[in-house]
Design a protein that fits this description.
The complex is a heterodimer of chains A (505) and B (119). By secondary structure, chain A is mainly α. In chain A, 61% of the residues lie in helices and 3% in strands. Chain A has one domain: Ribonucleotide Reductase, subunit A (Orthogonal Bundle), CATH 1.10.620.20. The termini of chain A are far apart. Chain B is α+β, with helices and mostly antiparallel strands and 119 residues long. The chains are: A mainly alpha (505), B alpha+beta (119). Chains A and B meet through helix 14, helix 16, strand 2, strand 4 and helix 18 of A and strand 1, strand 2 and strand 5 of B.
């Protein structure tokens, strides 16, 4: 006699079996011993069931969504390659933005996968555990699809051949690397505040929107399609970021000052890292989307303002130094590009002085500051380059102990003067670039005295040798191809040949 | 501030002076000459005379700037780790009070950088 088949479970029921149904309280060992990391940070949780799952995805639905997106993405990547899509970009200078993304940002996706895998083990609440595990898989997918989308450029352009190796060694890549190292070595709640909230919720639009619309504006369909494919994942990640904040704030009011301090810290670290995006938008895109100043006003001042107005009911204030960061939006891209222009002989991408019309665009977008502080310098550098004396800075820079960026940022009320902060800890001096970075150091000096500062490491002899050539070899650079000025680079020569060929045809 | 951690949390700083082979790190900034994007960092022997520091080290770092040869060193103003400072050119860096990771800033009155832009 045939048994009556059980009715299939609905999606809600399946989700509940997947999460709550798979969680239990341990009996052979105390829960505190099984989950030793989720209470040492001082965050008090009374009821883990109070966690509202931000996205209710079952595994089968997840695989189905993701595989459909993958099919589309890989079809576009294939057609981009078959149709020589790289010939359709606006200018070979654009590829330098890709180089920066692949070496600076994609490895962070992998770091995120590691971080979420770790904290996805550490929460005793089953809801956040599943959410983190799912995000870990997303992040792994992102690093893979980014590498696949961008690898096409590696066939033709320099500087794209050793991204993970460079990420671990090259001086400016220590900026994003140390950001994530800092987050991953924090406790699970701080990790989620740093990555899920400060980065993915508050600042993500300032990273992804500029890169993806920059790609669209500059004819890079492979990267645009990757962006679309990641977008629905990012939307889930953002809701996780907001949920974790609300969860902590609603559980116990003693959590509020801890969460506030993490927000202050990670907002500041995040804005420092976004310096790279600022200069990409204002200097590296041959066809510009909007200025960094405009992006900051829309995505931080307006959108962020609404968010913090919403969080005020929990007693949360906007991040400390948000006012300074808003002033910086006027200067950040120019100061950052100048740092890379100084040291592009030690960078795996090219820099250049913008063309005249591009300088005019910057004058128009930054009417109060560009002509006064930055344009004369760029015109001088252009003149020197044309006279065969391309300017490079031959001495290694002083770095900030916390963000690890060369100390090239000025006092925002006095753009003629570099901003300096210093702390004393156990008879040694630690220099920082800003009050934001100094606060971070002063709160946990034991953590930041261990910073692997590339310049100091070179002088200690830990980076391949004493000569700059030794260090660049240790970075895996192809000398004279990956680094140096754009004008006269092999990238430019190849691009010019293609254009000449096209004209003839 | 105490450290929030799961156990004992004490580590050696990575940049102790003994890691620099007899040198000490010195940070240097020529004020209002931002053609050089940031202060520089150099490992220098503490026994180096301050005169040699000016003539050899500073000219090695900054002589590409068109203002450099116009500097009147007698008029230059100095700070060492945030305090006003008058260097004794005949004495060593250490005897002038420079320690490991000291910051030296100098101003050159009358020189305003590229096209007056403080670059």
């Amino acid at each position: 006699m045939a048994e009556k088949r059980k009715k299939k479970m609905g999606i809600k029921q399946r989700y509940s079996m997947l999460t709550r149904g798979l969680g239990w309280d341990t009996t052979y060992q105390p829960m505190d011993k099984v989950f030793p990391y989720d209470n040492y940070e001082g965050i008090i949780i009374h009821d883990w069931e109070g966690w509202e799952d931000p996205f209710r995805l079952t595994m089968d639905a997840y695989w189905k969504f993701q595989s459909e997106k993958e099919k589309k993405l890989y079809a576009v990547i294939d057609s981009f390659a078959q149709n020589n899509g790289h010939l359709g970009i606006t200018d070979a200078r654009y590829v330098n933005a890709i180089k920066l993304f692949l070496t600076g940002v994609s490895p962070l996706e992998y770091q995120a996968a590691r971080g979420f895998t770790h904290v996805g083990r550490q929460f005793r609440g089953v809801g956040p555990r599943v959410a983190c595990q799912m995000q870990a898989i997303d992040e792994l997918r992102h690093v893979q699809t980014q590498v696949h989308s961008m690898s096409h450029y590696n066939k033709y352009f320099d500087g794209l051949h050793s991204a993970p190796h460079m990420h671990d060694r090259v001086w400016y890549l220590s900026v994003p690397k140390s950001f994530f190292d800092d987050a991953r070595t924090a406790g699970p709640f701080e990790f989620l505040t740093s990555i899920s909230f400060a980065f993915e919720y508050v600042l993500t639009n300032l990273l992804f929107v500029p890169f993806m619309s920059g790609a669209a504006f500059n004819g890079d369909m492979a990267t645009v399609t990757f962006g679309f494919s990641a977008q629905s994942d990012e939307a889930r990640h953002m809701t996780l970021g907001l949920e974790v904040i609300k969860f902590m704030l609603e559980q116990d009011e003693r959590n509020i000052p801890i969460v506030q301090r993490w927000m202050d810290k990670w907002f500041w670290r995040g804005t420092r890292m976004l310096t790279l995006v600022a200069m990409m938008m204002d200097y590296m895109l041959p066809k510009r989307v909007m200025s960094w100043r405009e992006a900051w006003d829309i995505y931080f001042t307006e959108a962020g303002g609404a968010l913090f107005a919403d969080l005020a009911r929990y007693g949360i204030k906007p991040p400390k130094y948000a006012d300074i960061a808003t002033k910086e939006a006027e200067h950040l891209s120019h100061q950052a590009w100048h740092i890379f222009y100084n040291y592009t002989h030690a960078a795996a991408f090219h820099t250049w002085v913008p063309e005249k019309e591009e300088l005019d665009w910057l004058s128009e977008k930054y009417p109060d500051t560009f002509d006064k502080y930055y344009r004369p310098r760029l015109e001088y550098l252009d003149k020197e380059e044309k006279a065969g004396r391309r300017f490079y800075n031959d001495t290694l820079p002083m770095l900030c102990q916390v963000c690890q960026i060369p100390m090239g940022f000025t006092d925002m009320d006095d753009p003629k003067t570099i901003s300096f902060e210093v702390s004393e800890y156990k008879d040694d001096k630690y220099h920082t670039c800003s009050l934001g970075c100094k606060d971070i150091f002063d709160y946990e000096p034991e953590k930041y005295v261990q910073a692997w500062l590339p310049v100091h490491q070179i002088y200690q002899g830990n980076c391949g040798g004493t000569e700059i050539e030794d260090v660049l070899k240790w970075y895996n650079f192809n000398m004279g191809a990956d680094n140096m000025e754009y004008k006269g680079s092999p990238d430019q020569k190849l691009w010019d040949e293609w254009q000449a060929h096209r004209k003839k045809a | 501030m105490s450290v929030t951690s799961i156990g004992k949390y004490e580590f050696e700083p990575l940049d102790k002076q003994e890691n620099f082979h007899g040198n000490q790190l010195t940070y240097i900034n020529w004020e209002q000459h931002l053609l050089f994007c940031a202060p520089v960092c150099l490992p220098l022997p503490p026994e180096m005379p301050f005169g040699a520091f000016v003539q050899e080290v500073l000219s090695g770092v900054y002589s590409k700037h068109p203002d450099f040869e116009k500097i009147d060193w007698d008029a230059a103003k100095w700070t060492l780790d945030g305090a006003d400072f008058t260097p004794d050119l005949g004495k060593s860096l250490a005897d002038n009070g420079l320690g490991h990771k000291s910051l030296i800033r100098f101003w050159t009155p009358g020189l305003k950088g590229i096209a007056g832009s403080h670059s």
